[in-house]
Design goal:
transmembrane helix, membrane, about 55% helix, mainly alpha, transmembrane, two-stranded antiparallel ribbon, globular, single chain
C-alpha cells in the first residue's frame, strides 16, 4: 500500500498504480464503449413525452442523464491515468458520436434521421459535453489535488 499513499482517503482520488499498461488501455476502451452506450440512450429517449389528461408534455430526462453519466465516465477515466488528454478520450468519443449521429442523414451511406432537429438535441450536446469535460477542467484548475 505504500505505492498508493492516499489509498482509501475519502476526499483524494488517485490513479491506480498496480495495473499494467494493457489494463489501463482497455479501461479507457471500455469507458469509451460505455460513453457510446450513454449516447445511444440519450439520443434514443430525447423525445420522451408524458401525458397528463389530454395534454402531452415533453420530458427530456436525458438532459439530466447525459451530463451525470458522462461525468461518471470521465471521473472513472481519471482513475486510470493522470494524463488529462487520455482521460478525455471517452468524452471525445461521446461528442464525435453525437456529431456523426447528427450528420447521419447527410452521409453517403446514411439513412434515417437519428438525432432530431430540435432545441432538446442542441441542449443534449451542450449538457453531455459539459458533464464530460467538467472533471478534466476541475483537474486543470486544482492540480494540487491530483
Amino acid at each position: 500500500m505504500s505505492d498508493e499513499p492516499n489509498w482509501g482517503h475519502p476526499t483524494k482520488s488517485q490513479v491506480r498504480r498496480d495495473t499494467t499498461r494493457a489494463e489501463r488501455v482497455w479501461g479507457i476502451v471500455w469507458l469509451s464503449i460505455g460513453a457510446l452506450f450513454g449516447l445511444f440512450i440519450s439520443v434514443l429517449y430525447i423525445g420522451t413525452r408524458i401525458t397528463i389528461g389530454d395534454v402531452h408534455y415533453p420530458l427530456p430526462w436525458t438532459l439530466l442523464f447525459a451530463p451525470w453519466f458522462n461525468r461518471a465516465i470521465t471521473k472513472t477515466a481519471l482513475l486510470w491515468t493522470n494524463n488529462l488528454a487520455i482521460a478525455a478520450i471517452p468524452a471525445a468519443v461521446w461528442v464525435m458520436g453525437f456529431v456523426i449521429l447528427a450528420a447521419w442523414p447527410t452521409l453517403p451511406f446514411g439513412g434515417d434521421t437519428l438525432v432530431p432537429s430540435s432545441m432538446w438535441a442542441m441542449l443534449l450536446l451542450i449538457a453531455g459535453t459539459a458533464g464530460a469535460v467538467w472533471p478534466v477542467l476541475a483537474r486543470l484548475v486544482t492540480p494540487a489535488q491530483q
